[in-house]
UniProtKB/TrEMBL annotation, chain A:
Transmembrane segments: none annotated. It comes from Pacificimonas flava. This is Phosphate transport ATP-binding protein PstB. It holds the Pfam family ABC_tran. Keywords: ATP-binding, Nucleotide-binding, Phosphate transport, Transport.
């Protein structure tokens, strides 16, 4: 991939957007010598759900993990380029990565609640960031977060039980509640439904729709129907490049790049 | 696989003959092989269990006598004049000093001589328990009491039936007079086998009937505490650093290989190291638990580092991701999430390492812990010995009475090790988390 990437097709509606929460400019990610993401630029809108789609190994998850610097935890990963959150460069040395990850929350592919009580799972984030002032304040945060995640009615009588005792779908919603407990500005979701059954998936998708507007949401998915259902903005990645970025409806009904069209119509991927 | 392709052409040959004689034979052979494999496993298990049972039976059948001792009944007259003690002395502030000065030895010897013509059937240390009687109950002064006192080794041997009367007298180890003395005591009903409480309360002695394991036990505890205090924090911190912080490069690889090699170094080498470093270079006290503990800590460290690393590696990365993703710092990830999950594994590995250190003899011989110590050590810098070394020393003793002491001490050591393993299992179950 030494040659310049093909020009990214950005739909006009997104070109002059001035409501972006996060902006990435010429971001490349290397794993050792291998280039996994190649000079990607994108703006993430604060009021919409943005979906990253593309075939396996196209770099969409790797790129997502740049937004909260989770790639820092991988020894051989190296990130180039510039990512800003509200105009602040998150790769700046003055940026505190611990605070960044509270502001930019993350939900992972496999539900990963802490092996602690449900209450403790939610309370952990606010506690380490010193957000709650008192026990009653913490109780309120736990209730609000679980309510927003649509889990309160299911777990309110067993907050002392282990978070790992919940079903897979409930665990994933618990992880979303855990992420929103620290009141983030952006939530990154890395294939949040790939380990869930269709009913649990529907619940999580419903939840994403409810959270839209309150948080900027970026979701990585390899399920095109899911992208079509939950997102308003879609970015198509292929071989480390951002091929096309536009309103979801446009991407699925009227893709402009050939590669996007081939992928949408199921010719590869 | 389209059905249009004829069956026999699918893989270029005819259909597999599942019911042919050759196939049946193959299946039969496969089952027979399976049965033989299982039988072999069962055989191995039986042999291992047999050896273990043989070991335990030998030790217990020899050793349980070590918890018993022969006692001789003596009528002791606590005559204040002969002891040089008055009741006022025992009430006063110097009671202990007065007691220590009083001649109980003569009192007991005379009492036995009056009753049995001599005092040879009593142990040299029998008077000690008489003094303890008075210490416990000063009212005894001026009274007469029948006391069961520790018997001499020959009485012990005869009472426990260790003497073979068919052997020629010169090889029997017990003279004819001693046998007749013993028979006289028996007929007077003045001999019994009692529980040897001194064995669990006293330190080593040159007299087998007075020797105990408590001194060695305390020495072992002090040594192991030093070992634990040094090797656990250093080992766990090393493991955490290597697992969570160290860059993956050549230096780290070399350190890793070195640690693995250290775990395989024979323990006696660590003894030489302890001798050279702690005794000769730092001039620490010889035979002291502090030196033994440091030496064993060197030996235990690699084991703890390796097992702690394995435990840390087994923590699911998804938990670390979850904590990092919510904005936990590296230290918070380790202390709040990684360590609690890894703790059972770390503790199990530590206890295995410590158990090994507890049973270690060779390195301690080199740093002087084989000295004869008749006091119970009061601190880590005082001379002490440890259980396995005590066993080694007693197995070397010529006195017949030490044979059963050796086995009894082995039983104590095994009990301690079993208790430690029990603690390991308990801790593992207590801290284990399921998901």
């Amino acid at each position: 991939m030494a040659e310049a990437p093909e020009e990214t097709v950005v739909h006009d509606e997104l070109k002059f957007a001035n409501d972006s929460k996060m902006t990435a400019r010429d971001v490349s990610v290397y794993y050792g010598a291998k280039k996994a993401v190649d000079r990607v630029s994108i703006d993430v809108d604060s009021h919409f759900v943005t979906a990253f789609i593309g075939p396996s190994g196209c770099g969409k998850s790797t790129f997502l993990r740049c937004f909260n610097r989770m790639n820092d935890t991988i020894d051989i990963a190296r990130v180039e380029g510039d990512i800003q959150l509200d105009g602040e460069n998150i790769y700046d040395t003055r940026m505190d990565v611990v605070q960044l990850r509270a502001r930019v929350g993350m939900v992972f592919q496999k539900p990963n609640p802490f092996p602690k009580s449900i209450y403790e799972n939610i309370a952990y984030g606010p506690r380490i960031h010193g957000i709650a002032d008192s026990k009653s304040d913490m109780d309120r945060i736990v209730e609000t977060s679980l309510t927003r995640a649509g889990l309160w009615n299911e777990v309110k009588d067993r907050l002392d039980e282990s978070g790992t005792a919940l079903s897979g779908g409930q665990q994933q919603r618990l992880c979303i509640a855990r992420a929103i407990a620290v009141d983030p500005e952006v939530i990154l979701m890395d294939e949040p439904c790939s380990a869930l059954d269709p009913i649990a998936t529907a619940k999580v998708e419903e939840l994403i729709d409810e959270l839209r507007g309150r948080y900027a949401i970026v979701i990585v998915t390899h399920n095109m129907q899911q992208a079509a259902r939950v997102s308003q903005r879609t970015a198509f990645f292929h071989l480390g490049n951002l091929v096309e970025y536009g309103p979801t409806e446009e991407i699925f009904t009227n893709p402009r790049a050939d590669r996007t069209r081939d992928y949408i119509t199921g010719r590869f991927g | 696989m389209s059905s249009a392709v004829p069956q026999d052409e699918q893989i270029g040959r005819g259909p597999t003959a599942w019911h042919s004689e050759a196939m049946r034979r193959r299946v039969r052979r496969r089952y027979a092989r399976e049965r033989r494999f299982r039988a072999l496993g069962l055989l191995a298990l039986t042999i291992a269990a047999g050896f273990l049972a043989f070991l335990l039976i030998t030790i217990v059948s020899d050793g349980w006598r070590g918890f018993q001792r022969a006692e001789v009944a003596v009528e002791v007259d606590f005559d204040p004049a002969r002891l040089g003690l008055s009741e006022a002395d025992l009430q006063g502030p110097n009671a202990q000093a007065m007691l220590n000065r009083a001649n109980f030895r003569a009192l007991v010897r005379d009492a036995a001589s009056e009753q049995y013509g001599s005092a040879t059937m009593l142990s040299n240390g029998a008077w000690l328990s008489v003094r303890d009687e008075v210490r416990g109950d000063p009212e005894l002064l001026g009274q007469t009491k029948r006391l069961w006192l520790v018997a001499a080794p020959y009485v012990d041997l005869l009472a426990k039936g260790h003497i073979d009367f068919d052997m020629p007298p010169e090889r029997r180890g017990v003279s004819a007079e001693q046998i007749s003395d013993y028979r006289q005591l028996r007929s007077a009903d003045a001999v019994r086998l009692g529980f040897n409480s001194g064995f669990l309360r006293k330190a080593n002695s040159t007299n087998s009937e007075l020797a105990g394991v408590w001194g060695a036990f305390v020495g072992s505890v002090l040594t192991i505490l030093v070992t634990l205090a040094i090797s656990f924090p250093i080992g766990v911190m090393t493991a955490i650093y290597l697992e969570e912080y160290a860059p993956k490069n050549r230096v780290t690889d070399i350190i890793e290989v070195s640690i693995n090699n250290l775990a395989a170094v024979p323990s006696i080498i660590f003894g030489l190291l302890g001798l050279a470093v702690f005794l000769n270079f730092f001039g620490m006290p010889r035979s002291a638990p502090v030196v033994g503990g440091l030496t064993l800590a060197l030996m235990t460290l690699p084991v703890i580092v390796i097992s702690a690393r394995v435990a840390l590696q087994s923590v699911p990365p998804s938990i670390k991701d979850a904590a990092l993703g919510i904005g936990a710092s590296r230290l918070q990830v380790i202390t709040h999430h990684v360590l609690p999950v890894a703790l059972p594994g770390i503790l199990t590995g530590t206890i295995i390492g410590i158990s090994r250190a507890l049973g270690e003899t060779a390195p301690l011989l080199l740093i002087g812990m084989r000295a004869f110590v008749s006091d119970i050590p009061g601190g880590v810098t005082q001379p002490a010995t440890v259980l396995p070394v005590q066993i080694f020393l007693w197995s070397d003793e010529v006195g017949r009475g030490f044979v059963e002491k050796t086995s009894a001490a082995i039983m104590v050591l095994l009990a301690v090790l079993l208790a430690m393993n029990g603690v390991a299992i308990y801790l593992r179950n207590k801290f284990e988390r399921r998901w």
